[in-house]
Every structure is written in C-alpha cells, then in structure tokens.
Amino acid sequence: MNSESRPYDAKSPRAVEFIHHGEIQDTLEYARTHKDDEALIGSVIDKAAACNGLSHREAALLLECDRPDLLDRIFRLAKALKQRLYGNRIVMFAPLYLSNYCVNGCTYCPYHAKNRSIARKKLSQEEIRREVIALQDMGHKRLALEAGEHPTLNPLEYILESIRTIYGIRHKNGAIRRVNVNIAATTVDNYRRLKEAGIGTYILFQETYHKEHYEHLHPTGPKSNYAWHTEAMDRAMQGGIDDVGMGVLFGLNTYRYDFVGLLMHAEHLEATFGVGPHTISVPRICPADDIDTADFPNSISDDIFARIVAVIRLAVPYTGMIISTRESEAVRRRVLELGISQISGGSRTSVGGYAEEEAVEENSAQFDVSDRRTLDEVVGWLLDLGHIPSFCTACYREGRTGDRFMSLVKRGQIANCCQPNALMTLKEYLMDYASPDTRAKGLRLIRKEIARIPNPKVQAIALRNLQEIAAGKRDFRF
Ligand code: SF4
Question: What's the pLDDT tens digit per position in 274-292?
C-alpha cells in the first residue's frame, strides 16, 4: 500500500497516517463547503466555550469563517478561555542561540549550509556563561536554547554540557530555572539524555506538514527526511519528555493546510500518549540574511494571523501559546488579546548577541527582530496593558509536567498556581532588575492583583512570601 492509499489513523506511529494528506484535503473541502452555515459555526463556537477543545475539522471551519459577528465571538472567546485557564499572567522567556553551524539545506533559514554570507559562530562554555549572566542581569529565568544541526560541531554532548553550564550559573540574585531546548530531531536515547539533563520543554517546529512541499524546502541534510522529523515528538515522548512544544512556520505553505496539520499532530499526541502539546508557537516567515519574504507567496496577513491564533486557542485550550519578537509590538499587542500566554522579551537572535554590544553584533542572526524593546520596556508595556508579566518556572520544578499538568489545566486549576507565582516572580524582577518607573507600576499591579486571589489560604501565603521577597529572600513557588 502506498502512503496515499493508507487510511487516516490518529494513533498510527507513521507520519503519513497521522498527518494524512487526504484527510487534510477533505477537511479543507468541508470547511469551504460549510463556511456560510451560520448555525453550524455557532454550535462549534458554543462547543469551544465549554473549554474541551475542537477537532481539526471544527477548527478548520472556524478558520474559514469570515462573518464579522461570528469572528468577533471567536476573538472574544479566545481571550476569555486564556483568561479562564491561565489568568492574566504572561510568561516571559528569552531565546539563547548557541551555534549557527548547520548541515541542513532549509531554503527559508539563513543558517542553511550553503549560506556563505552569514558569520558562523559556536559559543564556548565561557561565552555561554557571559551570555547567561547578561540574560540574568536583564531578569530572565527561563530560556529556550537554539542550535543548528551539526553532528560534529553541535553534538548532543555539547548541548548537554551547555545545559549543565547554564543551570550551574549563580550571579547576584539571578538563576536560570528552566531551560527549554529547540534542537533537531534526534533519537529516543538522546531524548532520554535531554530529559535527564533537566530540560523543560523540547521544542521542534514542523515548518510545514505538506510532505511534498516539506521535501522541496529541505533539499539536503538529515532534516530532509519528513518521517524522521514529523515523528520526532513520538520519540521524545518515548524518551520520557512529556512537555513538547510544536509549531509551523506560517507562510512556507498554505496556512490552511498547515493549520489543520498542526491540530492533527496535537490530536495524534493526545491519542497516543494522553498528552497534547505543552506549547504551540506561531512563527511567520520573516526577513533574514539571504532570505527574501517575496520568495514566499504564501506569507500571511496580520488579519489571518490573528484568526489563526484565536482558533488555535479555541481548539487546544490547554496549551501555552507563544509569540516571539519576530512580530512587531503592534501585532504582539493584538494577539495578546487572542490567547497568547508566553512572549519573549529583549531577545537577540544572533549567536553571542546578549554579551556583545549591539553595535558590534555580528551578522549571525536566524531572523530579524521586529520588537527591539528591552525586557524592562516589554514588562512595563505588559503592566500598562493590565497583564501580569510572569517569570514563573514552578510547574516543571514541582513535577507538574505531561498529563499531570494537562489535567490541572483542563480542570481549570492551574490559574490557582499561575496567579500567585506570577506575582511573586514579578516582585523578584521588580526588586532586582526593574527601572524605577516599571517598579512603581508593577508594585501597584501586585497590590491590586493579590486581592483577587480567590483562595484565602493561598492569598495569605503569597502575601507573606511577597514580604519575604522585599526582605531579600528569593524563589518561592506554589
Ligand atoms: S504555575 Fe505552572 S503553568 Fe502557571 S506560569 Fe507557573 S509554570 Fe507556568
């Protein structure tokens, strides 16, 4: 049987069966045919309001809807679901680029092996120390490690050594408390070693779920193997990593196809392992060295992007949704109202970019940063918008990962942890790193928000901990 004639099977271990081309086409046809069925769309929105998620078909239908009144309901519900499940905290993180050496030939990424104009660089452990100290001095507690795929220059041993270095750095009151890792698809055994090294989330973007298109965009290197890449999350779960982060690079292929593929992938993980994606990221193709977005006719508008974010929140309500500094301040502000729950701030996408002066920052970046504000400016901005910037890393350190985490979110209980943890970690940030203006705004917000913690016992403990933080103690969590 060739892959085309195999049936769709969400539980299959084979990529072409759980990301089934025929099922995606049927889904898109279904959405096109029913896009004006107001009653059907209304019933799907009602179903989403119960917070139990949507199937990929239902979600595709909502994505296709272009009636302003229904779209408005979708947007308002996306905001409400994020609020119901996670409260108004927004988790902060920063990417840390370790090495841009790469053997792959991805046509949309400036790290591709044939790009001779990019400055190649790999950080030594001493350079990593300098980067991490610079990140700690900004106030970051949570990192996402990034590295190109290179079996001899960036072997797993290098990644593991780097993780040990990062977790070992104590500088003033700073510490990196959670290291997420975004590296190439690897073996079950290597995933096990990453788990043992204490990583938080394993992140791997699919780029596109369209197999033919994927193969065209990845002409050379290990990443050109669609099945190896698409089945990586299964191997990560088999290796004991139960928090995985997914995403596609919107604009590489038609957004509708990749949107459905992304949701089918989430359904596959839930059906097979009982755990869906811990996070979903929504990067879009953007300019970079040697990359011209004009070469990508599928790139998407801000309006479509907003719809995608909102409908993912309705379809996979329990997931953390991440937006990076690829996006401008204006776009980030818009999607913060549509279900985004994590953002990066003060990011540098060049290798060594945090410790180096920006003026001498080398041309080694993976993509151009749109939002170039400092972390303090982003924190102050979030406070102005009424969000609680959170530096919390509690769940993974308390063993609330995988299905344990999912079930707490699905039962609407995680916000009971998020809210006080956000306030306590924000207070640490305000004491140690904030500008006077941000500190004043943050302390005002904490006074207001502490009164909103519903459980009196939790509120009393949080209040005591906030006083201890003011007195110099650190690292409290629920
Ligand atoms: S309590 Fe858990 S889910 Fe909430 S912000 Fe902290 S680590 Fe994330």
Answer: 999 999 999 998 777 877 8
pLDDT tens for each residue of 26-43: 999 999 999 999 999 999
Kindly tell me the burial class for residue 290, based on how many C-beta atoms sit within 10 Å of its own C-beta (0-12, 13-18, 19 or more).
middle
The residue among 391, 394, 393 whose CA lies nearest residue 379 is 391
Q: How far is the CA of 156 from the centre of ligand 1 (A)?
A: 28
| Fold exhibited by the domain 83-407 | TIM Barrel (3.20.20)
Query: Is 18 strand, coil or helix?
Result: helix
pLDDT given for residue 3 in this prediction: 54
- Quote the CA–CA distance of 382 and 438 in Å, as a whole number: 10
- Which amino acid is present at 468? E
How many residues are listed for the chain in this entry? 478
Indicate whether residue 421 lines ligand 1 (CB < 6 A). Answer: yes
Q: What are the DSSP calls for 436-475, one per residue?
A: HHHHHHHHHHHHHHHTT-S-HHHHHHHHHHHHHHHTT---
Rounded to whole angstroms, the Cα distance separating 149 from 102 reads: 5
Tell me the whole-structure pTM to 2 decimals: 0.96
- Based on its alpha-carbon atoms, the radius of gyration of the chain, rounded to whole angstroms, reads 21
User: How many whole angstroms separate alpha carbon 330 and alpha carbon 346?
Assistant: 16
Task: Give CA 370 to chain center in angstroms.
Answer: 17
Q: Say yes or no to pLDDT of 360 above 50.
A: no
Please write the tens of the pLDDT for every residue from 13-29: 999 999 999 999 999 99
Residue 161, classed as helix, strand or coil, is helix
Tens of pLDDT along 216-226?
A: 999 999 999 99
* Ligand 1 pocket, mutate which of 178, 395, 404, 425 (most atoms under 8 A from CB): 395
Q: 406 CB under 6 A from ligand 1?
A: no
- Å from CA of 201 to ligand 1 middle: 13
Pocket perturbation via mutation, ligand 1, pick of 318, 340, 421, 428 by most ligand atoms within 8 A of CB: 421
Closest CA to 243 of 452, 395, 378: 395
The residue extents of the domains of the chain are 83-407, 415-470
Q: What is the mean pLDDT of the chain?
A: 95
Retrieve residue 69's tokens.
Answer: 């009144």
Of all atoms in ligand 1, which is nearest to the CA of residue 415?
A: 4
The answer, yes or no, to whether residue 180 has pLDDT greater than 60, is yes
- Report DSSP letters for 407-446, one per residue: HHHHTT-THHHHHHHHHHHHHHHHHHT--HHHHHHHHHHH
Give the C-alpha separation, 170 to 189, whole Å. Answer: 30
* Centre of ligand 1 from the C-alpha of residue 249, in Å: 26
pLDDT score for 358: 52
Taking CA atoms only, the protein residue closest to ligand 1 atom 2 is 395
Question: What is the pLDDT, as a whole number, of residue 330?
Answer: 96
Q: Which atom of ligand 1 is nearest to the CA of 478?
A: 1
100 in contact with ligand 1, CB cutoff 6 A: no
